[in-house]
Design a protein that fits this description.
Elements: E1 2-3, H1 8-22, H2 31-42, E2 47-50, H3 57-70, E3 76-81, H4 87-104, E4 112-115, H5 117-121, E5 131-135, H6 136-145, E6 157-162, H7 170-181, E7 186-190, H8 195-204, E8 211-213, E9 225-230, H9 237-251, E10 258-263, H10 267-279, E11 284-287, H11 293-305, E12 310-313, E13 324-331, H12 336-343, E14 357-362, H13 372-382, H14 392-403, H15 405-413, H16 419-425, H17 438-475
Parallel strand pairs: 1-8, 2-7, 2-8, 3-5, 3-6, 4-5, 6-7, 9-14, 10-12, 10-13, 11-12, 13-14
Helix pairs in contact: 1-2, 1-3, 2-3, 4-11, 6-7, 9-10, 14-15
Length: 476
């Protein structure tokens, strides 16, 4: 792996693009953003970008296009998403990113387009773009329908792919493999620093040698409190969430903030939470798989622009608002990777342990069935998604650490380690203890109690020694 170090000239280019994007003379790009942007502008090698959830991955392709525009060196670019098992989620993410890019590109000649499976079916395929947002399903359908050439004498297209997990749906990911063979450079935005993940994905889609942009010791660890509470009665969970939100509104009554509630169980559970909040006059939006396409777009726009305080959603990533300070994980998370995504709904500007919290209200919900884990591992091996030299123990630990509900349950049930350090260690990211999570506070209290008990014992022993000395003097 080759690591890229950003130069001062690259910072100047990307900072100028950031000033343009935010219409602010004080705006600047993060160092990792600058490194990624410069890689995309040169784009001689496949790469992974290590960038935390909610820390500016969208800014990478937006700043790159703006920098190219300012340098009069336009590069046509395709943005893909690998949410192969979550088509709805992929579509929603693309719609939101398309709206964001369109807003940042106002006043420029840059053209933004989006392409969903429905567009491909209806032959609504535009080639007049500088930045194209496309779901992996639409991309596969497009390649099956029209074998496009992605590189010619006048334009160059790259694919930015948001990594989730190596997926057994080989027919979809095979499309990316073919793209790499056509010498199209692929940049993958990774929310983790897990080296096995990079090696396995790089192997599967045929990247060969690739560059890594960003360093593990510079990965931005969110300064967010993690509160974990376990309940056996799922029926009262919506009431408990409601009570906590009321407490937050009282304690932060002088602040303007929003709340994201992730419900990964059922649409009905999400509806129950929304009804409980609405009954108490807490303004709330909801986004689930039942929503019509027009409703999805309206809801995303409302979350971005209107004043509703809460969003209840069955979708964990890609639905952003910069004023979110509290995220609730309702009942369970399917994996630690999804929990990291939930963490990322709180953006850096709001990541302050005095205000920002990830609230996990766990009920032990487990949708998995006997044999699921073994079947998933077998699919990965049969479809050659990892090198043949990978031993079973390594593969099992890798998959369970990031993508299986067991690792989430082990995380929740751990009561003697810092939650934040434990969570990021599974992703290959080093972190100090936070001193603010449920476990750290409990251990701190226990430590204080032990110190006080020891001091009391020392005092008792001191008093005994004093009495002995006095008795000895009286005998003499």
């Amino acid at each position: 792996m080759k690591y890229h170090i950003v130069t001062s000239q690259e910072l100047i280019w990307t900072d100028n693009a950031a000033k343009k994007a935010h219409n602010s003379a004080s705006a600047r790009a993060a160092d990792q953003q600058a490194s990624a942007v410069m890689h995309l502008m040169n784009n001689f090698q496949h790469a992974f970008v290590l960038f935390g959830c909610g820390t500016g991955k969208s800014g990478i392709y937006i700043l790159q296009q703006l920098a190219c525009c300012m340098l009069v060196s336009i590069v046509r670019r395709v943005l893909l998403s690998l949410h192969t098992t979550l088509c709805l989620q992929c579509i929603i993410c693309k719609l939101l990113r398309h709206m964001q890019a369109t807003k940042y590109f106002l006043g420029t000649s840059l053209r933004v387009e989006k392409l969903l499976p429905s567009n491909v079916v209806a032959d609504e395929i535009s080639s007049d773009f500088d930045l194209l947002f496309i779901s992996i399903h639409a991309f596969k359908d497009l390649m099956d329908k029209i074998p496009i050439r992605f590189s010619n004498g006048t334009s160059k297209i790259s694919s930015l792919t948001s990594i989730t997990t190596p997926n057994p749906n080989c027919s979809i990911t095979q499309t990316l493999r073919n793209l790499a063979r056509h010498n199209i450079k692929i940049t993958l935005l990774s929310a983790t620093g897990n080296t096995l993940l990079m090696d396995f994905v790089g192997h599967y889609i045929g990247l060969g040698n690739f560059k890594v942009i960003g360093e593990l010791d510079q990965y931005p660890i969110p300064d967010v409190v993690i509160n974990v509470k376990c309940y056996s009665d799922a029926e009262v969970l919506s009431v408990l969430v409601l009570q906590r939100i009321k407490q937050l509104n009282i304690s932060k009554k002088d602040c303007s903030f929003k709340i994201y509630i992730v419900v990964m169980t059922t649409d009905a559970a999400a509806a129950a939470v929304r009804e409980a909040l609405s009954a108490e006059s807490i303004s709330c939006l909801m986004l689930t798989s039942d929503c019509l396409q027009s409703k999805k777009e309206d809801t995303m726009l409302a979350w971005e622009e209107r004043e509703e305080q809460c969003m209840v959603s069955t979708i964990v990533d890609g639905i952003d608002n910069g004023t979110v300070e509290d995220v609730f994980v309702y009942s369970a998370s399917y994996s630690l990777f999804r929990l990291i995504q939930s963490f990322g709904r709180i953006h850096p500007a709001r990541q302050n342990h005095d205000h920002a919290t990830l609230h996990i209200f766990d009920t032990g919900y487990d949708p998995s069935r006997d044999g699921d884990f073994e079947r998933q591992l077998n699919d990965i091996k049969v479809k050659n998604m990892v090198p043949n030299s990978t031993d079973n123990t390594t593969l099992e630990k890798f998959y369970q650490d990031l993508f299986n509900i067991q690792s989430y349950q082990d995380f929740i049930n751990c009561n003697n380690q810092c939650y934040r350090k434990l969570l990021f260690s599974h992703c290959g990211i080093p972190s100090d203890v936070c001193e603010t999570c449920t476990n750290c506070r409990k251990n701190h209290v226990m430590s204080d109690a032990a110190i006080q008990a020891r001091a009391k014992q020392d005092e008792i022993e001191s008093n005994k020694e004093y009495v002995r000395q006095q008795l000895t003097k009286m005998k003499d």
